Amino acid sequence: MRFIVKVIVVAFALWLTTFIVSGVRLVPYEDTTVATVFTYLLIALIFGLVNAVVGTFVRIVAFPLYVLTLGLISFIVNGLLLLLVAWISDLLGFGLVIDGFWWGVLGALVLGLITWLIGLIVRPSKD
What we know:
The protein is mainly α and 127 residues long.
């Protein structure tokens, strides 16, 4: 259940990111509302899987760079992960389109901030 909520939160944050960052947009597989929502959910699922598998590996291997740059390399890593998601979705024939590397970095920053803010609201309280 928690995984489904996280995917929905990332999909909603991605939807908001496409409105805020002009270099990040989504191409659904059909021009219907249901197909657009489903595409956002699929991209959020792909982003979660890429972040869990590839992102974890990169963060472990690049730990010295994180320490050396005081964590600023995380912007570059997150931008590259978002570009990887765009590439994977392009292979599927629909999905995320990013106009360039720096749009990917900015999109990842905005996506991370929005996801964090929504997570503060959605997170269940510990009683």
